[in-house]
Amino acid sequence: MSLKIPGLDTDKGMIHFGDEEVYLKVLESFIKHTPNNLEKIRDYENIDNYRIAVHTIKGSSKSICAALLGEIAEKLEKAAREGDLAYIKANTGILLDEAEKIIETISDFLTNSLFPQGEDLKPEKDFPDSDIISAIKAAADNYDMDVLLKKIAELDKYRYKSHLHLVKWLLEQAEKSEFDVIQKKLQEILA
Q: Which of 25, 56, 109, 154 sits at a 20 to 30 Å CA gap from 169?
């Protein structure tokens, strides 16, 4: 399958994730969870929530190699840190348009690809790999969205007899930037 998706440097993405299936899983996560953060940035009233949401969009965009979207989000994050509401009001619409275009393009690609979507096609393990769990916890400790998403995608290569919904839960928490919640849960799993 050819990984050519407009708005993404898919060659760089493949190198970054090292595996086509992992990269496609991260793209799936991006289109599933980014709309929630897009909703949060439509409201500038709470500048802290805005800054956190745009930071998350920046990280996930750069992670999937959507450079333009990542750059727009980075500039908006800087404006939010500086309290530059004029810049935020003038440029948030640009980010929303670009993000929605990228989401639609990725969604169309995944819908038309041969990528297997079913959990039943994954090999099964009894328990998630503790080294990967530790790496995810460390990424959460360091607020490193890029490593966090890469390690969650590694975890998602398998189905697990225990912690059936851990990957889904981790992705949901990552998209909400709930690093502290992730740290606490993974500490319990590792104990």
A: 109
